[in-house]
Amino acid sequence: MPQISIKSRLPPDSLEELLQCPYCGSKDARLLFFEKEFEYMDCQTCSLIYLKSRLKSECLHLIYDDVSYHQVSNHGYLSKIGFKRLQMLLPLPMGARIHEDGAGNVAFVSQCLKFGY
After folding, report:
1. Handedness of CA 101, 42, 65, 15 (dihedral sign)
2. pTM recorded for the entire structure
3. Which residue(s) pair with 35 in the sheet?
4. Strands (E), 36-86
5. What does each C-alpha distance from 101 to 5, 22, 81, 93 come to in angstroms?
6. What does the radius of gyration of the chain's CA atoms come to, in whole angstroms?
7. Contacts of 15-21 spanning 24+ positions with Cβ under 8 A
8. What distances in angstroms separate CA 73 from CA 25, 37, 103, 105, one per listed residue?
9. Cys-Cys with 82: which of 3, 37, 98, 107 at CB 3.0–4.6 Å?
10. Peptide bond connecting 91 to the previous residue in cis, omega within 30 degrees of 0
C-alpha cells in the first residue's frame, strides 16, 4: 500500500518556509538531509539544525494532538535515527550540553543520554 504524503494531508496554509535561521537570522545554511519529505538545514553561522519547511505555531495541534504521533512502532529505527543525528554533531568536547527543542519521540535525546551528554 503506498504511503500518503505527510505534507498533502496538511492544509496548504499550515506550513511556513524558513528563509533564514530561526535562532540567529543567518541565511547561510546547507541541506543536511531529507526525512519524511522535510528538509533538515544546518545553519553555518550558529550550527542550529532546523526544518526549512515547518508547521506554523498555530497549526501544531494538527500533528501533536493526533494519537498516532505519540505511538512508536519501530524502536530500532528510531534509535538508529537518533544515533545518526548525534553523529552529525561529533566530535563534541567533554561535558558538552545539547539542547533539543521539541524532542518528539525522544530518540535523539535517548542517544545523547546514552553517550553522556
Report:
1. positive
2. 0.60
3. 38
4. 38-43, 49-51, 53-55
5. 25, 12, 17, 21
6. 15
7. 15/53, 15/54, 15/55, 15/56, 15/59, 16/53, 16/54, 16/55, 16/56, 17/52, 17/53, 18/50, 18/51, 18/52, 18/53, 18/54, 21/45, 21/46, 21/48, 21/50
8. 36, 19, 17, 11
9. 107
10. yes
Place of cell 550540553: 97
Lookup: cell for 33: 538531509
Write the pLDDT tens digit of every residue in 14-46. Answer: 999 999 999 999 999 999 888 878 898 999 998
Written as one letter, the residue type at 116 is: G
pLDDT tens digits along 48-97: 888 999 889 898 888 777 666 656 566 777 788 888 888 888 888 878 88
* Distance spanning both ends of the chain, measured CA to CA: 40
Residue with cell string 500500500: 1
Q: How many residues does the chain have?
A: 117
Reported as half-sphere exposure (CB side, CA atoms, 13 A), residue 54 has a value of 16
